[in-house]
Amino acid sequence: MSNDDKLRQVFIDALALEPGIDVENLSYRSTEEWDSVAHMLLVGEIENAFDILLETQDVIDMSSYSLAREIVDKYGVQI
Amino acid sequence: MTRLLNLERKVAFVTGSTRGIGWATACVLAANGATVVLNGVSDQYALDERVSELRSTYGVKAVGLLCDAADPEDVRGAYRKIFSTFRRLDILVNNAGVLNDALVGMVSDKMVTQTFGINTFGAIHHLQGAARLMQRRKSGSIVNLTSIVGVTGNEGQIVYSSSKAALLGLTRSAAKELAPMGIRVNAVAPGFIDTDMTRQLPQAKYDERMASIKMGRIGRPDDIAHSVLYFASELSSYVTGQVLGVDGGMLI
């Protein structure tokens, strides 16, 4: 599984999304599943999946899937 | 039978732990098997000495981290270090603090900024960093050191007491928010404890405080450390959002 697929799966699992949903179109607080509580769960799952610790500002900034990709890339995870 | 006080394999971070209540707490946690991260602001030598003492006395892992609670970036750096070293944090004791007293008309901006910077904002930043690490394992215990005057108020202490009163809100709010993640947040409110901080008091003020303690003795740092151990251990596994007064029946 590529890191992109892994990140996609983390989004689906952490936000309890329907399988096959296009995560690229999701944004924080624009969908019912991605509220502030789910966001912290998502952050924790991303950290566990890639064994990284995100900075607080990155947690705040991570408002879409594409931004999540950019952010984990900063921590040396090649997407 | 499960040993409820057993802290082996747990990593504990005690802020402000080179002396006083912080050092006593570090010793008590280490005596029960915890790996301890000690913390001072700037004195590397004193910190290294304490790390060596903890290792040799209790046979536990111990490391030292210089970190100023008043500097948010410093605090974030401490949690990056703990993550890179241990990959986990189980216990945070939010102890670092300063005591500055002044009558209402004598309170300076600098005093407000310094006291809140360490006692309140520092505690918030530490709690934030610790919660991020603890949520990875969906368990943890955070113990905030407030003060009896944060609960009751006291003349001459509007800045210190309000900086410590803020920790009551921090404790209760964080406890509610973090409970679903398995993280407990509690507070200990010491009374008059025999530390360098309280020895700074003028003799008349010292005597007045002593006279207000129903048990007739000043508190020992160990008295506080034992209460922190209760919150840090499985003895309090169903307790969160609580403030425990440890004051010998002191009346203010």
Please provide a written account of the structure.
- Chain A is an all-alpha fold.
- Chain A has a single domain, classed as Non-ribosomal Peptide Synthetase Peptidyl Carrier Protein, Chain A (Orthogonal Bundle), CATH 1.10.1200.10.
- Helices cover 54% and strands 0% of the residues of chain A.
- In chain A, α1 packs antiparallel against α2.
- The longest helix of chain A is centred in the middle third of the chain and has 15 residues.
- The radius of gyration of chain A is 11 Å and the shape is globular.
- The mean pLDDT of chain A is 92.
- By secondary structure, chain B is α/β, with parallel strands linked by helices.
- Chain B has one domain: NAD(P)-binding Rossmann-like Domain (Rossmann fold, 3-Layer(aba) Sandwich), CATH 3.40.50.720.
- A 7-stranded parallel β-sheet of chain B has the order 3-2-1-4-5-6-7, with helices on both faces.
- In chain B, α1 packs across α9 and α3 packs parallel to α4.
- The longest helix of chain B has 29 residues.
- Chain B starts with 10 loop residues before the first strand and ends in a 6-residue tail after the last strand.
- The chains are: A mainly alpha (79), B alpha/beta (252).
- At the A-B interface, α2 of A face α3 and α4 of B.
Break the fold down into its secondary structure elements and pairings.
The complex is a heterodimer of chains A (79) and B (252).
Chain A lengths: L2 H12 L21 H15 L5 H6 L3 H10 L5
Helix pairs in contact in A: 1-2
Chain B lengths: L10 E4 L5 H12 L3 E6 L3 H15 L3 E5 L5 H15 L4 E4 L14 H29 L2 E6 L2 H5 L5 H21 L4 E8 L5 H4 L3 H9 L9 H12 L10 E4 L6
Parallel strand pairs in B: 1-2, 1-4, 2-3, 4-5, 5-6, 6-7
Helix pairs in contact in B: 1-9, 3-4, 4-6
